[in-house]
């Protein structure tokens, strides 16, 4: 095989001093030579070259059924002088059924469209049709493009009719409509870094799979990252790292990142991973940080159960605002029905600072949703979790986790912290190991089948009777209590477990059924402490469990207590609220 000499468009009359029409003709001749050979290297020399002074009638450079094509940019800028109107668009570089491509394209400069019309018209810099594969794009840059990179196929296309294996090093999109658009085509995509300034949308895939995309954007006009479905085709294995911290103006109704069901045809999104770094500007704020939304065929929020599903979502990152008026960070749009379900939903390692609340509506959950290490000073609403898919929150901190005290969603909180329990619901909630003495609660709607426990720490003199737990029953009832303790004062240690059963009536009066007894022999190191458990009657608000520990009176004395409750009755709803005294 004889290596072919590179083809330089300058040899075909391409020149900075030529007219747009002559430069277009020169490119067409050079591309025709590549197509006739079926492969080759095309060189664009340094300089600024006018093209398209009028509405183009054909694609600038259309490659078809080629293998091993390289385009080398030596500092070339293609300058479109035509002013686009209406819904006009045309493609510069188009590849159909081509393989093994190295595309270092010339920079594109085209007239910038008005903000609200950037997604309507302009040039398309790079387009893939049919079965293209093994594509390397080390860098790409465009201003005023309708779309920078796109791959397009019919919704019914097979793998043999779709583009795949696209590797983008770095991209720059300035005042463009769409940065990256994949329409039922474009599988196995990696984007090292995509930089967007004032886009309509930076990333808009649907009906594709296996993407890893890193984006830094600002001043977007629409849902900047829109992970969508159409015609029943959703997404599979999509990972997005999205940064938007420098915006100064944006479309207020537009979220930063969205998972979308674009029409009424049932669709499935699987294995979506999103990590964000967001900072709302003081003015010109964009909308929600993250939404899950569904639309009908008319483009409005859908209120009908279509059978959509979301299986596997992990969301993490930082969301903050320097303005008190920042919009809701996380929310859901549309009405979700019983035939639409979410599975394996995880919000983790998420911090946001804003006076606005976040809302995660779990009404469509089929499996337990997990909230792990959520940290915010505002409210983080975990709402409508069904009894068949109890939500789990671990190591989370918020002002509260429910919009009001009547929320009936099923949630278990482990090692969580609530700063303000005024509107925190305890209905169908289980709280385990809460921090900072904030209200703890456990609700056993399935009475007689579960146990609950919590813990508390007392510091200082333990020899006087001190209330350690507070218990409230909605109606008279009782059960078995198990109190574990570990005491220390200097070099002295005492550990043990005591059990007792008791009932508590609605007036807050205890009745001991089985006296307090040691479950195991108490173990001591140094001076022992005799632990006495006292049931302290209270009021209709509830009653206390108190302890007295002899000998441990030093300022450094400390006692760690864990209380477990096992209900013995099956006809009451039990709330255990533990308030350290």
Characterize the structure shown.
The chain has 581 residues and is mostly beta strands. The chain is built from 1 helix and 44 strands. The longest helix is centred in the N-terminal third of the chain and has 18 residues, at 20-37. The radius of gyration is 32 Å and the shape is elongated. Mean pLDDT is 87; it is low at 436-450 and 570-581.
What keyword list fits this structure?
581 residues; mainly beta; Immunoglobulin-like; 19-stranded parallel beta sheet; 6-stranded parallel beta sheet; 44 strands; elongated
What does this entry show, briefly?
This protein has 581 residues and is mainly beta. It is built from one helix and 44 strands. It has a 19-stranded parallel sheet that branches. Strands 4-7-10-12-14-16 form a six-stranded parallel sheet. Strands 35, 37, 38, 39, 40 and 43 form a six-stranded antiparallel sheet that branches.
Q: In terms of topology, how is this protein built?
A:
Elements: E1 7-8, H1 20-37, E2 40-44, E3 47-51, E4 61-64, E5 67-73, E6 76-80, E7 89-96, E8 99-103, E9 107-109, E10 122-129, E11 133-143, E12 147-152, E13 164-174, E14 178-183, E15 187-197, E16 201-206, E17 209-218, E18 225-227, E19 236-244, E20 257-261, E21 268-280, E22 290-294, E23 309-321, E24 330-333, E25 341-353, E26 358-361, E27 370-376, E28 380-383, E29 391-394, E30 397-398, E31 411-414, E32 417-418, E33 429-432, E34 440-444, E35 452-459, E36 466-473, E37 477-489, E38 492-504, E39 510-518, E40 523-525, E41 531-539, E42 542-549, E43 558-567, E44 574-578
Parallel strand pairs: 1-2, 2-5, 3-6, 4-7, 5-8, 6-9, 7-10, 8-11, 9-11, 10-12, 11-13, 12-14, 13-15, 14-16, 15-17, 17-19, 18-20, 19-21, 20-22, 21-23, 22-24, 23-25, 25-27, 26-28, 27-29, 29-31, 30-32, 31-33
Antiparallel strand pairs: 34-44, 35-43, 36-42, 36-44, 37-38, 37-43, 38-39, 38-40, 41-42
């Amino acid at each position: 095989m004889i290596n072919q000499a590179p083809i330089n468009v300058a040899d075909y009359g391409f020149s900075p001093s030529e007219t747009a029409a002559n430069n277009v003709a020169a490119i067409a001749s050079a591309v025709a030579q590549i197509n006739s050979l079926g492969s080759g290297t095309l060189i664009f020399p340094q300089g600024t070259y006018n093209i398209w002074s009028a509405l183009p009638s054909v694609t600038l450079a259309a490659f078809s059924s080629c293998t091993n094509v390289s385009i080398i940019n030596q500092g070339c800028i293609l300058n479109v002088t035509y002013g686009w109107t209406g819904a006009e668009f045309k493609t510069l570089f188009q590849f159909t059924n081509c393989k093994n491509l190295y595309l270092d394209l010339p920079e594109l400069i085209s007239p910038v469209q008005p903000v609200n019309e950037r997604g309507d018209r302009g040039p398309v810099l790079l387009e893939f049709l049919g079965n293209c594969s093994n594509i390397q794009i080390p860098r790409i840059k465009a201003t005023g493009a309708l779309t920078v990179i796109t791959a397009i196929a019919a919704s019914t296309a097979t793998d043999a009719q779709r583009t795949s294996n696209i590797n983008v090093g770095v991209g720059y999109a300035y005042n463009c409509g769409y940065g990256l658009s994949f329409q039922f085509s474009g599988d196995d995509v990696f984007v090292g870094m995509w930089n967007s300034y004032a886009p309509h949308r930076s990333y808009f895939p649907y009906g594709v799979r296996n993407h890893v995309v890193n984006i830094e954007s600002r001043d977007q006009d629409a849902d900047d990252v829109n992970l969508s479905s159409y015609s029943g085709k959703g997404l599979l294995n999509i990972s997005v790292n999205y940064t938007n911290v420098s915006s100064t103006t944006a479309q207020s109704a537009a979220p930063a990142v969205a998972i979308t069901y674009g029409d009424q045809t049932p669709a499935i999104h699987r294995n979506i991973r999103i990590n964000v770094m967001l900072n709302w500007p003081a003015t010109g704020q964009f909308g929600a940080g993250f939404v899950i939304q569904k639309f009908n065929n008319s483009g409005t929020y859908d209120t009908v159960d279509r059978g959509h599903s979301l299986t596997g979502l992990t969301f993490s990152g930082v969301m903050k605002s320097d303005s008190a008026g920042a919009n809701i960070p996380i929310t859901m749009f549309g009405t979700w029905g019983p035939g639409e379900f979410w599975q394996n939903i995880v919000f983790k390692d998420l911090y946001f600072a804003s006076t606005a609340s976040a809302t995660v509506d779990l009404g469509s959950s089929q499996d337990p949703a997990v909230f792990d290490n959520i940290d915010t000073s505002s409210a983080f609403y975990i709402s409508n979790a069904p009894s068949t898919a109890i939500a789990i929150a671990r190591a989370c901190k918020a002002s509260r986790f429910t919009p009001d005290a009547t929320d009936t969603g099923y949630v278990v909180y482990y090692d969580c912290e609530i700063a303000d329990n005024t509107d925190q619901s305890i209905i169908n909630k289980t709280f385990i190991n809460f921090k900072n003495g904030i209200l703890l609660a456990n609700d056993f709607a399935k009475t007689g089948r579960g146990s609950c426990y919590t813990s508390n720490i007392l510091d200082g003199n333990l020899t006087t009777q001190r209330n350690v737990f507070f218990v409230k029953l909605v109606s008279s009832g009782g059960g078995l209590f198990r109190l574990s303790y570990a005491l220390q004062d200097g070099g002295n240690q005492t550990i043990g477990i005591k059990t007792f059963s008791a009932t508590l009536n609605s007036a807050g009066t205890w009745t001991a059924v089985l006296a307090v007894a040691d479950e195991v022999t108490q173990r001591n190191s140094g001076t022992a402490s005799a632990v006495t458990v006292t049931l302290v009657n209270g009021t209709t608000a509830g009653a206390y469990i108190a302890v007295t520990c002899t000998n441990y009176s030093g300022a450094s004395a400390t006692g760690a207590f864990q209380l477990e409750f096992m209900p013995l009755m099956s006809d009451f709803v039990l709330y255990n609220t533990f308030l350290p005294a």
